[in-house]
Every structure is written in C-alpha cells, then in structure tokens.
Amino acid sequence: MFFKSLDLTTALRPLLLPDEILLFVQDAVGLYEGKYKIQNYQSGHAYLTSHRVCYVATEDPRKYSVAIDLKEIDRVESQAGFLKSSPKVTIYSKPQKKKTDKSRSATASPAVAQQSALHPTHSLSHLPQTNLPQSSPSPKPINATWICPICSFSNPVPSNFDPAMASAATNLPPCLACGIKPPFTTVLKAAINAVTSREFPLLNLAVSPAIAQDTRQPNANASISPFGSGETVSCPRCTFVNHPSLVECEICGAPLSAGSSANANRVDSPAPLFEQSHIANTEVSECVKLSFRAGGDKTFYERLKGALVQRKWLLQNAPPVPSPSQGASSPGLPSPAPSVEIPLPSAPRTSGAGIAGLERRGLEARRKNELVIGNAFEDLEALMASAKQIVALAETLARESGMTTNEGSPETSAVLSESAAALGMVTTKDMLSSGSESLYLSELARDLAEYLTDDRKGILQREGGIMSLIDLWAVFNRSRNGVELASPSDFQKAAELWEKLKLPVRLRRFKSGLLVVQRYDWSDEKTIEKLQAWMEELRRVPPDDPVPWDWPLFGRAVTAQEAAHRFKWSVGVAAEELEMAEDRGVLCREEGIEGLRFWHNHISSPEYDDLSRLVI
Amino acid sequence: MTTTTTTPFPFPPTYNFPPFFTPQPNTTTRHSQLEKWSSLIQSWCRHHRQYRLSLIDAVETPLFHNAALRKRLDLREARAIIDWMAKSEKEGGGGRRAEWISDAGGTSSSGSLGNGVGQGPKAVAWIWWRRPEEWADVLVEWVEGTGQRGSVLTVYELIHGEGAMSQEFHGMDIDIMLRSLNVLVKRGKAQIFGGEGQEGVKFF
User: Fold this and answer.
1) Do A74 and A1 share a structural domain?
2) Which residues pair with A292 in a beta bridge?
3) 3-state helix, strand, coil in chain A (%, to 5)
4) Are the beta carbons of B196 and B178 closer than 8 angstroms?
5) For residues A586 and A531, is the Cβ–Cβ distance under 8 A?
6) What are the subcellular locations of this protein (chain B) (predicted)?
7) Which of B19, B25, B46 shows the shortest C-beta gap to A599?
8) Option in A553, A599, A611 nearest B12 (CB)
C-alpha cells in the first residue's frame, strides 16, 4: 500500500477518476502512519470515494494531500474514541505479493493464528471471529437471506448473485413460499449485508503474521486471555446472547457482527510524530489511521466497508452485463449502459426485416427503458445501484428532446443535458455526517467552484466570466436533476465562503445589491479597460447612419444589451457593469425615449473643459 | 430681448453631446455637467445681452433645446441648474451666478422683460454673467477712465446714454444698474438721489 500523490481540482478537492464517485467527506481529520502522527497531515478533509481514500490538508492542500487506493486495502477497523483519544479508522494494507503465499500457508496453521489471537490490542473488536475460523479455512459461500416483502419468508440469496455485478436485469428466483419474484433492491441489499458481515473474518485470516506482529504493542493486557473477559455477543437478528467465540448465532444461524469496540487504545495518544514530513509515494509499512476529531468516523467506516465490498474499481473495464431480454444477439455491445439503446437500423437482427423489424426493436428498447426507470425509482438505494444506467438514459432522452425542439435552444440547456459529470462530484447532505452545517456549506462552496471552473462546461466563460448568483443557482440546481437541491440561503452562504476557502471564484455585490459570481482575478479595472477599448473603437468606426453629433470625438452610445452581447454577459450584469463604470466616472448616461444609453464621459474630461471655458 | 446680435452663438462642443441633457447620477460627473451648463448659460446670456432668464421661454430656445440632437433640457432640470448656480461655492454651488426673481411683479417696471410675471416661483432668474459687484467695478473704471468723477449722471444716461454706447453695460436692465450702483453707495463711491424712475447718481 502506498501513499499516492493526489491531483486536486480547482476547488482543492481530489480530482476524481472516470467512474469514481464521492461517497463521504469529513473535516478535522488527522493522519497516522502506524502509531505515529504524520507531521503536517493533522488537520484536513478526508474524502472517501468509490476508488480511494483521500486526505487533503486544510492548510497548503496542494502540498499535503495523499490518497490510498481502496484496492490495496486489506481491511479496515474502527476504533471508538475514549477520553482524549479521538475515534479512529485503521486501514490495513494488503500484504505484498511475495508475502501472500506465506500468509496463505499461515492461515492453515492453527498455531500462528492462535498466537495472533493472544494479543488483544490488535483488532480486539474482531476477536470472536479471529479465533475460530481455523476449523474452516476455506471461504464459506454467501449465507445471505432476503425477506420476501409479500409473505415475509426468509429466502436464501442465490449463490451466483454478485452484488457488484448484478443489475436490475439479472434474473432472480421467485420466493420459495409464495412464488412472487422479489424486487431487485431487496436481494441486493440482503446480499450486500451478508457480504459485509462475511468479509471480516475472512480478511482477518489473510493477515500476514509479520504485519500482525508489527502492529501489536506488548502491554499489560497481553497476557490476559480475551476469553476471560466474559464478553458476550448478542445476535443482531434474534438478540440471543451467544458465546463470544461463535461466528454464527446458535439459534437463528445469523452471522454475528463484531462485538462492541469500546476498548480504545490509549497508549498511542498523544502519539509521537512520524519522522518523514513528505509522505507522498512512500510505502505504508503497516497501517494508516485516520483520526476523526470532529466525529463522522462511524459513517466513514460504514461507507468505506461498503466501498470495499462493492469494488467499484473492478468495474472500470468490465464488459457490460448482458441483459436477458437482449439474449445473445449482441453480447459485445460496447455501451456502458446496455439497457439504453437507440434503435439501430443496421442491427444484425434477423427476426424482423424492414419497417416492422425496426418498430419491434423500437418497442423493445422502450419497454426496456420503462423497466429500468420503473425499477430504479422504486427505492433510493436501487436508484444508486442503477444510477449509471439512469443517467445514460436521461442523457439520451435529453439529446432526443433537444433534437426535436428547435436547434437554437439556449446554450445553457446544453449544459444541463451534460449533467452526468455533475452528478458524480456533487456533495450531497447524505455524504456528510449529520449536523455539520459548516462542512456542508464548505463542500457546497467547493462543488460550486468546481462546477464553475469546469472547462468541459465552461459556464463562466460562456457567460463572459461573470454571472449572477441567481442564474447560477438555477443552473446548478437544475443540473442536480431535482435531487439534493441547494436552498437559496445555503447557496448564498456557500458562495460567501469562497474567499475564505481561497477558491478561484468570488462573490461580488453590486451597488444595487445584485450578487454575481466571477473569477478571483476579475476586477473592475479590467472591465473598465475593456469598456474603454470598446469606446475607442466606436470613435474610429463611422456609425451606420449619419449622426448629428461629432462622432470622431464622442463616439457612439451603447446600451446594456449591446454590452451584454459584446462581452457575452447577461443583460443584468451588463447594466451593473456599465453603471459601475459610470460610478467611476468613465462613462456617462443619456436617458431618452430610446432608453438608457451610455457614452464615454466627455462631460468631466478636462480637455473639453478648457474648450468650453474659452467660449465665455 | 434687449439687443440681439446677428452673429450666431458659438456653442461649446459638449452642447452636441447627447448625455449633456441627462442629469448625471455620478456626483463628479454631475458637478462638471453643472459647471458646463452654468458657463453655457452665462455665455449665452452675455452673447445675447440678456440679464434675466425666463425658464419657460428659455426651454424653447436653442439654449435648452438642441434641435439637431432632438434633445432638450426639461424645466425641472433647468431649474436644478439655476438652483445650483444660485448657490455660493461654499455651499457646493456655482458661485452665485444666478438669482431667482421671487416677486416678478415688482420688476415689471422694466416692461420689456415682464413676461416672467405670474409664472410662480422659480420661473425667472437673474443670470449674473457679471455679479453686481463686478458691474460696480466696471462702472468705476469707466467713470474714472472718462474723467467723470464728481459729475452727476442720471441712471437713464448711464444705460442709454451715447457716452456709454461702447460699454458692456449699455442697455442694461435698470434693476441691475440700481443694484450695482447700490454696491458703490455702500462702498462710499457714489450717491443716489432723485425719485422713482428719475434717479440720478454722483460718483466720488
């Protein structure tokens, strides 16, 4: 396991890989290498994504940020806080390749396992499982059950059901008692639960004894047998109090979860500092600890476990799941969303020729989309599971509707339809532990900054580098597709945080109270320079119609609309900018029946003052 | 109008600048705008030998109405400019270059300019392209230059007399002449005697 260097976005957050999604964010997190605190890595944000655990320091984030790939993680442990010790999540690295064989042989030997069990400081919370599985060293099949929503009968999850690969299109066996097919989500949830609880005993077995030896610290408890503590484990399903050495409940057979993790290790706190100050690209010798000083450890731990189970990183180059309705006709379809299809006229289908065949294909595609939508919106979790398909479907629909409506649709709608990327990185309240309003706001501020500076969308560029906060709010919320909308007050508060967080966008209040968003390097002087250059240009270009005034001297009047068109601002912003320039005395106004127009300020320019004095 | 010269009035370049006719919200711009209007009004009145300005008539004249630009200064804005001109520089005004004639009826003796009568307050104003004090200086200079110190002149002579034909105060409004002479009286440089409309003045 290595500390990988981390690329940050403009908003100083981890740059996500394709298909990577953000799962959780927590602030006030410190980093430990083994038992040692790592200098300069003691106050920052922990980002959990589907592929990585990232740490980004609050101070100097470009220098002090690292990531650990989830695929290199062997297992994780949670440690509750005790007195002054903050709750911690420990991440154990996978053994090196050469060590793998050794560890495999070690698992077969009861003596080694016994030895590791004698040290309670090491993974105390999982002790009950650690001791026993010597008798059954081979991985057990998934022992998951799903409860039928119709008759509440406990059915076993089919052994070939893989929660990471399954989709709504997977064939599911009906309930054994009532014969009704279960909803996909029920089975998926059951399978994930089962895998989560199964993972740990198995992973513990695979720990190399060398690593285990390193982590443990001989202390007073070392000689005390864990069995002497009299700790018992109550079954999460039937609440029967089991002997701690059992892995399954004696009564109902449910897998027993980890016991209470109240035994915080206080020996290492306050911990000595890790010598190296720059840790990027260094190897983690044993384990990494994340210390959660402001809470959030429970959720982080749960999500991390979930991410380790789902193994999203495997999906990156995985072939698409062939859906049953499609059969074997097109197994090699490269599309990542197999159930979303636009009927292709050149499809190698033999069943139907001509228009009838096309129509049948169209009908099938529609039916499939219907099924996907129907399944996905049944449950939020199912929506998450099939999010990829739904986003793809939504994009297709948007593209189609965009084609059918007039081609001159505003550019903003193009931005909206490209919302898939926005879905990936946007922090929702769900990703944060409850009650941390300030964290939510700062994350929202970062979201916005990223959204604005994203070159793919180029929202700010398209709006001439400046847009009103209300426009941004509308576009941003629409790009969230109606879920996890940001409230106006949160939105404004988040925008006010940009300056504090040193993000590359700024909120600015015009004299009239209009709030606009602009780049940090945008200044009134620059705007005025632009306006003055324009005014100079107008003095050189003869007007289309003869004008009664001296145009080489005065130029021509401009309206807010013209300015908006020229600088690609919105009209409201253009009006504000012109008034700003007027305020600085660069422009002056002319009110007439044609409306408000702005001129270069010849009224207070001194060269003409002298002229008019001469006349007296 | 007393005397209207045949040469056309040379308007300053800003007169053809359309925003000149719109009140500017920016204070510095506004200040320069008022200054320019003030000097324009003064030079206009001086060119036309005009001492009082009736705004209601003036808004139709080329002074406040730029026909080429199809722009005009409305009455309210013209009043604001005269107001500004009437204030002293200390009050942030234009140095008392104008003065409202509050009781237009009292000045009807001048006859030719009685058109401001009955138009309510702030309808007619003196435009001081020369303040009465400045006129007093001009008079003293002329009297001394022509060796008329100690002699007695009627006010009519001063205004319409042949001796003062070439002078700027020739054909001056009688009210202004009296005010200027009163300045001289206060300075102890002249004495006014005689009745209403028959005033004579002696310079010391």
Assistant:
1) yes
2) A29
3) 40, 15, 45
4) no
5) yes
6) Cytoplasm
7) B19
8) A611
What is the full per-residue pLDDT of chain B (204 aa) written as tens digits?
444 446 788 888 888 888 888 888 888 888 888 888 888 888 888 888 888 888 888 888 888 888 888 888 888 888 888 888 888 877 777 778 888 887 544 444 444 444 444 456 778 888 888 888 888 888 888 888 888 777 888 888 888 877 777 777 877 888 888 888 888 888 888 888 877 767 788 887
Burial of A379 (0-12, 13-18, 19+ CB in 10 A): middle
Instruction: Using an 8 Å CB-CB cutoff, list chain A residues near B31.
Output: 604
CA dihedral A312, A318, A322, A328 (to 10 degrees): -170
End-of-domain residue from the set A477, A499, A519: A519
- The residue out of A472, A491, A519 marking a domain boundary is A519
**ipTM of the modeled complex:** 0.76
Preceding amide of A270 cis, omega within 30: yes
What tokens does A103 get?
A: 């560890």
Q: What residues of chain A lie within 8 A of the CB of B20, using their CB? A: 603
Provide φ and ψ at B177, rounded to 5°: -60, -40
| Residue with the two structure tokens 């926005």 | A422
Domain that holds residue A64: 1-95+208-219+267-316
Residue A69: strand pairing partners: A52
What total of structural domains would you count in chain A? 4
Structure tokens belonging to residue A10: 């403009």
Q: How many CB atoms lie within 10 A of CB A77?
A: 21
Cα(A616)–Cα(B82) distance, rounded to whole angstroms?
17
Mutate to test the interface with A, among B9, B14, B17, B70 (most CBs of A within 10 A): B17
B13/A420 Cα distance (integer angstroms): 59
Which DSSP letter does residue B98 get? E
